[in-house]
Design goal:
By secondary structure, the protein is an all-alpha fold. The chain has 16 helices and two strands. 70% of the residues lie in helices and 1% in strands. The protein has a two-stranded antiparallel ribbon with strand order 1-2.
């Protein structure tokens, strides 16, 4: 390859590492965590239309087996972290020895920091992080994101593309075999309940500290990290494919939509024998969340990066570019109190039937304004 061709490839990759559609989709994902999910319940109260009641039900996690729209938020975020890896990564051997060492240290630092921030988030509403290690919840959403991102990064650095696909298949099938056929002290062997699954034994025996709401199994427990890696790793495949076919976007979208359809078909079919379950993060759950994640990415990529409809996208990107700050803020700041303190008079000026809806709108608006202040000053807090 000539020098000019090499420069062209590098230039193309640099352009691809920051897609507005990715930031906007991440912002769309996060806005529901900021409290926007309450809009539908408020609209049901206001209008009485059963449609809003149905949608409001989708804004809650499934009780055990099954899938709701709200269950997609977490795996979509992990998927997008993988897409970012695929957009920016290059063969690890292309770096010199010092750069490789620095990248390893930086990746490890990010993993530790995300796990630490996850602990801070877990205790944000209470009396603070307890001094007793036995009273700390170590498992967390940010910790799982960190683990999935870190392992995916190492796999992308050191494994060929073909080997990465083998790893995906091995993790999905291996996890199913573990939960379906392996038994430890009476747990597992096809028991997918909240008290008898193999994950329960791992969390009870090996996970230090407390579990979420002191349940037998933690929704971010140990064993299910195994399959959450697949969400990030497939995201990395997608990121590389975007770089490869960015010059032919319609062809790219066709590939991604076909992949989304395939994931959904296989996921729902597999779900007949290996239940779709977020807490267990079953292989079928991984596949359907990948399908929906890809479908959403196609919509955002087509509207924003192909058709160039970017005004609304930038509103969402304000959230997506500081997603960690937005997420931590939901635990460390009482946004409902803050929005009432600022806009309480405006909210009460509305008719009583509208006040619940406006309370949600202004709570999200206050958070967005804080994030916009950061965005407007190009302050992007990354971990």
């Amino acid at each position: 390859m000539s020098t000019s061709e090499e420069l062209q490839v590098v230039s193309q990759r640099k352009k691809s590492t920051r897609l507005l559609s990715i930031d906007a989709l991440r912002g769309f994902d996060m806005i529901w965590i900021l409290g926007a999910e309450g809009v539908f319940a408020a609209l049901f109260v206001l209008t009485g239309h059963s449609y809003f009641e149905i949608v409001a039900g989708q804004m809650e996690h499934s009780t055990w087996h099954g899938f709701t729209a709200y269950d997609l938020i977490f795996p979509l975020f992990i998927f997008l972290s993988g897409v970012s890896i695929g957009l920016s990564s290059k063969p690890f051997g292309s770096y010199d020895k010092t750069s490789r060492k620095n990248k390893h240290l930086s990746a490890l630092k990010r993993l530790v920091l995300l796990c630490g921030l996850g602990i801070v988030y877990n205790h944000g509403w209470g009396a603070g992080i307890p001094m007793s290690l036995d009273e700390i919840r170590f498992a967390s959403v940010l910790g799982r994101i960190g683990i999935a991102w870190y392992v995916t990064t190492l796999i992308v650095w050191y494994c060929r593309a073909s080997m990465q696909w083998w790893i995906v298949c091995s993790l999905l099938i291996g996890y199913w075999i573990l939960l379906a056929f392996v038994s430890i002290e009476g747990f597992g062997a096809g028991n997918y309940s909240s008290t008898g699954a193999l994950n329960v034994w791992f969390d009870q025996a090996l996970l230090p500290g407390i579990h979420y709401q002191h349940l037998p199994i933690d929704p971010e427990g140990l064993l299910s990290n195994m399959t959450s890696i697949v969400n990030a790793l497939v995201g990395a495949f997608v990121g590389r494919h975007i770089v490869k076919l960015s010059h032919v976007p319609i062809r790219l979208l066709r590939h991604l939509l076909l992949a989304a359809l395939a994931f959904l078909c296989v996921g729902y079919t597999w779900g007949q024998i290996f239940p779709i379950n977020k807490t267990l993060w079953t292989s079928s759950f991984v596949l359907i969340t990948l399908g929906y994640s890809l479908a959403l990415l196609c919509v955002f990529y087509y509207l924003i990066d192909v058709l160039k409809i970017q005004r609304v996208a930038k509103i969402l990107a304000v959230i997506g570019t500081n997603s960690i700050v937005a997420y931590l803020g939901t635990s460390l700041v009482n946004w409902s109190y803050t929005s009432t303190a600022i806009f309480g008079g405006v909210i009460t000026a509305f008719p009583l039937s509208y006040q619940q809806l406006m309370a949600v709108v202004f709570m999200v608006l206050v958070q967005w304004l804080v994030l916009y202040w950061l965005y407007n000053r190009k302050i992007f807090i990354k971990v």
